Queue: 3 jobs
Job 1
Amino acid sequence: MKAFKLSEIAEYVGGVLKGEDFYISRLNALLLAGEEDLTFIDSKKRLSEANQSKAKAFLAPLGFSEYLPEKSVIEVKDVRVALAKASSLFREEMAKPSGELQFTHIEPSAKIHKEAIIYPFVYIGKEVKIEKGVIVFPFCFIGDFCEIGEGTILFPHVVLYPGTILGRNCILHSGVILGADGFGYAQEVKDEGFKNLKIYHFGRVRIGDEVEIGANSTIDRATFGETVVGPGTKIDNLVQIGHNVRIGKECILVSHTAIGGSALVEDYVMLAGQVGVSPGSVIRKGAKVAAKSGVHGEIPPGEEVAGIPAIKASLWRRAVVIFEKLPEIYKEIKKLLQK
């Protein structure tokens, strides 16, 4: 079990330790924390719970040590950021498989670093390149000409269609599929309607460094060229990204979001749950889109939008209030018209 002194943790997260220095072996939630755990508090509303907690060590905002006189407190500017950094110290190490690689197929032309870990029941195709520290769990499929950067992890049942490129230190959770054909069809007119003709795809998917993709999310290959996800972007479970989409760096895409083909999502964009982005739309740098919104056209840089179609969030909130009152307003208008 890992153990760190509070002073070591404070230095790592960029905080200041107030109180006794001792070893911590785990990170835990406030109501679950024990005496050897480090927990956190970011609001004065929870001070009573914190003082009654068994935990002796806290991450807390600047100045909070005076409210927790019997605790050791690491004061930080941003508790959530400090929590993220501290969590990396206590993360679980991946176990290495023991025994032979039974039922694993590796094409002779594949190049696999000696310090990569490949579990049984994995298929690795022709000319695949797998770098140092990569971990591939059982039942993964890695198609021909794929490249997987150093330190990347593929959890069970990940599928990489041929030509997919993954950067360094990516995490792909179970069921992720990269490189399937996009949803592209041409309608040939017939006497009784039309026939759907498949447009075959010739591109690939490229994923930047430190991208995390949640379970059962899918990213389609480009019709021509590349579908791209920039470095540091985090994608939740059950997200669909269409062909030729380009997503910038450090974006957040929450569950059930769907992005239509050839859309552009610039750096630092945040899309909340169930956002729909129509094909060819543009979301500029730093924009935020509220849950269940529908984006069509272009969202300016830094804009916060909501609704279907998405409009300025401030305007949408006012419109929602009016919408609730529409039946009453209609009655009043009807009375006025009858006079």
Job 2
Amino acid sequence: MLRIAVLGYGYWGPNIVRNFSKVPGVTISWVCDLNPKTLKEIPKVYPTIQTTNDLSMVFSDRSVDAVVIVTPPATHFALAKRAILSDKHVLVEKPMTRSTPEARKLLSLARATKKILMVDHTFIYTPAITKLRSIVRSGMLGDIYSIDCVRTNLGLLQKDSNVIYDLAVHDFSIIDYLFGVPPKTITAGGITQKQLGQETVSYISVVYPNSLFVHCHVSWLSPVKIRRMIFLGTKKMLIYDDIEASEKIKIYDKGVSFTNNPKLSYQLQVGYRSGTVTIPHIEIEEGLFAMAKEFVRAVNAKKTPLTDGLMGFRVVQCLELATRSLRSGKTIAVTKTV
């Protein structure tokens, strides 16, 4: 039986507890939160879970095998470090840390102690993204040369994080999962809300190897909620729309072609192809439940999880460099530091 403690029971914590409670072979021993009203409500739903506002109660409990950290990003590093030093495996919410030095230290510590360090990049575990990866890697789209990402909504404005760390984290993690390579350069611009001292709108241009260009638009100041990625390939095009209830992926047999006839080089000979639209079947499963099962599998089997600490580091690096680019007005080169 794997015994887990959950730190934080605010917005996302109840979802974490609900899903881990359904995983066979798992017992949630503790929920720790600073809000006394929250702690009083937990036993009404989960009578066997112990509650506390004292972190030392959790970290000193030798029966706890793993800790799930569902607290604000600024606290991730200190809590994850303390958990690993307390001989516990760690699952931490995205982003793994606020900076690459912190991410590097956690990664090194987990390796040295042989503890599982995993990041909850939930989208990676959704059936739609699993299907998307299968399509991309099958070559159906051909060589992908451009991805246009839009992730917008109204709020929630935050004082301890900017829109890049809040929303672009999803696009960077998905692209990392699809292609498995870090970018070469990152250029970002945007709007800073003076009252918050944080960026609330950002446009991020990212160049990856093999001439892949990615553009991300993220915003807390949009009247509509959008979660869309458009893939342009040499063979076909694809739209992934997470807002869609059932038709999240659409494959378009559309494109352009250019003549290779040197005799016609003085003319612009372009052919446009407009074929059928294919909507693949996608299984229904909550991504968070699949993520919870993956963490349990990794801990029990002592195997590297799908969204491990190394992936978490790469994503944090992208977020950090995009923010640096926005604030400096410069294009930032991505260097390998792990």
Job 3
Amino acid sequence: MIPERFRDDLVRLSREINADPELAYEEHRAVARIAALLAKHGHPVERDLGGLATAFRTRVGPPGPAVALLAEYDALPDVGHGCGHNLISMTIVGAFLTAASQAKDLQVGIELIGTPAEEKGGGKIDLLEKGVFDESVAALFSHPGAGGHWSVSERLLGITAKRVIYEGLAAHAAVSPEAGRNALTALIALFVAVDGWRQHLPKAARVHGIVREGGVASNIIPSRAVGDFGLRAAEMDRLEEMVGTFEEMAKGAALQTGTTVRIEDAMRAYLPVNANPRLGADLARELERLGKKPGRGKLVTASGDIGNVSQKVPTDYIGFPVSGDEIPGHSHKMREASV
């Protein structure tokens, strides 16, 4: 349990981050607030960790190998902290302060690592590549949910993101449409193909997308259209198969419309979460000791860069409810419930 003397500071931290959302790699004010709270309680913070301006680390316990506690604090466009990352900061910083209050009893180091850009970019991947987790013996994490459910060892899907760019030929949409090649029509054809494809995908697979560009005026045949798509699956080999099929569909839409297509990676792949059974058992026992009844091993059709960490370091996390009602993630309702 978190000592009472930390509670007011932690609640204030969470509410201030929630009210002041910052996007990926831009979370300067959130990091400053966390660093100030840690400094107040006697813990110096290493800033610019791994060359990232909004990553940080602090540590207690003996030198050498350490358990990494991973904090997140980036927000989403439009819905702000609709994923509740302010609560991740609150709970993980609270866990660190609790461990630090018993530092003389620690047999292994405890590191609090601030990881930016989970929603877009993958700050944990950056830190992995910089060797930040080379001496980590375990990584622990938390994430809010709803429906009154506590959980450990949840499995998350892997995800890759693709940007699809169609190039056509502009023409007057009323006078000479036959002289044009409609890039937006090609992109719409790809969306239609994806809709038809979904019925043949495994239950846990997901494909979703948005139109980023679709023309400049209704009386001009769009010469350029751009879509962003996310593809998710529970296993990487299945995800790679899906990417191959998706790219063939994108080329087919170009062939159908006389346009050209270019497909780019929109982000680095987030790998599926490989939850560690031993850590999960320990977390479940502790929650049960506190009167909770956590579920174990549920497959959640979301994704996160925690998956990349889990493929290198024994990893598990606690899912905790913000409401007894079911609330969709990445929503205004979730943001409000996470205050």
